[in-house]
Design a protein that fits this description.
It is a multi-pass membrane protein. This protein is an all-alpha fold and 549 residues long. Helix content is 75%, strand content 1%.
Length: 549
């Protein structure tokens, strides 16, 4: 395409992404499924199309998306649910790859075990984007959100590492389990080390992170740096990106300033929005290319390969979740169960506030249906070299799995969650936040006591007393809110007239200030630069206001 055509195509893609998001907000349907349908619709129409370039996707798209997801994840929550996360993101991915590999090599003529395992590795990792978007909107409990998020972060690294080993075997003399296992562990451990190195290198750049623009530029470069470092030494680049993101996200509050965090969060939300929209559009547009490659295969061969791939993908996940619930606790393999006793900062042992309980039937059902596949599966399978036998058939199998899970499971996930009655306990979440707010305000009051005990002049006394009154009013409001939450007998956040009134009055006064500033600007008494500075101050003040929770 010429430059003008490329620009028009990009503008059209952005317009479609915005339109599909608007439709998703209005209808409750997952934007990922809508964008895929839009991509398929465009693909069958006459006109220029875009073919998926696996190297570009794996290098410039997947690392930023995984890094952003890691920044938003909780390292502590993932560690608390480590048994379940590892079971789903490592063991289940490995089992899926092996079962599909053996099935393809046994039942599809001319297919090798290495090629079959490569296909299995490509389709094994669920893409959590669609499931998380729907799950959060449907009010899925935080525990399941954490499991889906943690699984989605680590399963890509597992799958792509297996894929690399399988491709190497397909190009070589065959598949050797001892050799493949050794290479897998080397790549995984190396990826973890590379991620830790990058995370601590970023920590040492703390002076640069004091400037919001420099901090933001550094954040955008971090996933690419982690990926390049790991790949240059032939270890898992995807795992390096995830580990770096988890560590940096965990330390963000200590090693970056508020202004930097606000700007970085806003930029990553935009990056996620555009990249996720682009990749789901690309999924749909690959339909003609994949279908055209099938002319040399019989219908029976295609049906057998697709049946094995889709069947294992859809059936193994719920079977795995059910079986792992039935294992005895003594084996330490059962998903869920009481969390281990942890040590606090002073070395004393304590029991976690929310011990991890075994997954119940409704949670198993929801997790089973949260296995939507995405662009990583297609990008991974498209990296197969041309020397791999039945390469075109493997492309089609992966594409069918993505469509079946993304459209079938993605469109029905929200109704399933509502039917199961799985909803987060809003009262408990609100109580936890208000307890933390109260503790933070009390810490501020204690710090004022320390300052007041030191030598200071009358001006400081006035400032301290003014701040003390503000904090005491806020603390009293939070305590009244907690009293109301403690008396609540349902999982819905109760209404508090005083709390709602306080928030309404503060928002009304901020809006009045904003309108007055606009009048000053329109009257020529305030220039636009001054307006933006003052308006940004009000925006930050409004952003700090809590919601009903």
């Amino acid at each position: 395409m010429h430059v003008e055509e490329t620009l028009l195509f990009i503008l059209a893609a952005v317009a479609v992404i915005i339109a599909m998001r608007w439709i998703a907000e209005k209808t409750g349907l997952p934007a990922a499924a809508l964008l895929t349908i839009a991509g398929i619709t465009y693909a069958v129409l006459p006109g220029p199309n875009v073919e998926l370039e696996p190297e570009l996707i794996m290098t410039y798209v997947i690392p930023p998306l995984l890094y952003s997801a890691a920044l938003d994840s909780s390292l502590l929550d993932i560690r608390r649910h480590a048994r379940t996360v590892i079971s789903l993101s490592v063991l289940l991915v490995l089992a899926t790859a092996l079962l599909i590999g053996f099935g393809i090599s046994w039942w599809v003529g001319g297919a090798t075990l290495a090629a079959g395992i490569a296909l299995g590795a490509a389709v094994a990792p669920p893409d959590p984007v669609a499931a998380l978007a729907v799950g959060r909107r449907a009010g899925l409990p935080g525990k399941l959100i954490t499991l889906i998020q943690g699984e989605g972060l680590l399963n890509d690294a597992t799958a792509l590492t297996i894929l690399t080993v399988a491709i190497a075997a397909a190009d070589g003399d065959g598949f050797s389990f001892p050799s493949a296992t050794g290479k897998f562990f080397v790549m995984a451990i190396g990826g973890v080390i590379a991620g830790v190195v990058v995370a601590y290198a970023i920590r040492f750049m703390r002076p640069l992170r004091k400037d919001p623009l420099s901090s933001n530029a550094l954040s955008l470069a971090t996933p690419l740096a982690a990926y390049v470092l790991a790949e240059s030494v032939h270890v898992s680049g995807v795992l390096a990106v995830v580990i770096a993101g988890l560590i940096i996200g965990h330390d963000s509050s200590r090693h970056s300033l508020a202004a930097s965090r606000l700007q970085t969060t806003a930029v990553w939300r935009l990056v996620d929005f555009l990249l996720e929209g682009l990749v789901f559009l690309l999924i749909g547009q690959q339909l003609p290319t994949v279908v055209d490659e099938l002319s040399k295969y019989t219908t029976a061969t295609i049906a057998t390969a697709v049946g094995i791939t889709v069947g294992v993908t859809l059936l193994l996940r719920p079977l795995w979740l059910i079986l792992t619930q039935l294992l005895p606790r003594s084996l330490h393999l059962r998903l869920g169960g009481e969390a281990e006793v942890e040590a606090d900062s002073e070395g004393a042992t304590r029991t976690p506030r929310d011990p991890e309980k075994a997954l119940n039937g409704r949670e198993v059902t929801a997790l089973s249906w949260a296995g939507t596949r995405g662009v990583i599966s297609l990008a991974a399978i498209f990296t197969l070299p041309e020397s791999v036998p039945n390469r075109e058939l493997l492309h089609f199998c992966a594409f069918v799995v993505v469509l079946v899970t993304l459209l079938g499971q993605g469109l029905t996930f929200a109704p399933l969650v509502r039917w199961l009655g799985l909803r987060a306990n809003k009262t408990d979440e609100a109580r936890e936040r208000n307890e933390a707010r109260s503790a933070a305000v009390q810490a501020a009051l204690d710090r004022l006591d320390d300052v007041q005990a030191e030598k200071h002049d009358h001006v400081e006394d006035v400032a301290i007393e003014h701040m003390r009154k503000q904090l005491e009013v806020r603390l009293e409001r939070y305590r009244r809110r907690l009293d109301l939450l403690e008396k609540a007998d349902s999982d819905q956040v109760p209404a508090s007239p005083q709390y709602e009134a306080a928030l309404m009055v503060r928002r009304m006064t901020i809006e009045a200030q904003r309108e007055e500033l606009l009048r000053w600007r329109d009257a020529g008494n305030l220039n636009d630069e001054g307006l933006r500075i003052l308006e940004r101050e009000l925006d930050h003040e409004e952003r700090l206001l809590p919601d009903r929770r």
